[in-house]
Amino acid sequence: MIGTYIIIAVLLLFPIGFLVSTTIAAGVIGWALQSNAEMANEDSELLDCNY
Question: By the 8 A CB rule, do 47 and 38 touch?
Answer without folding.
Answer: yes
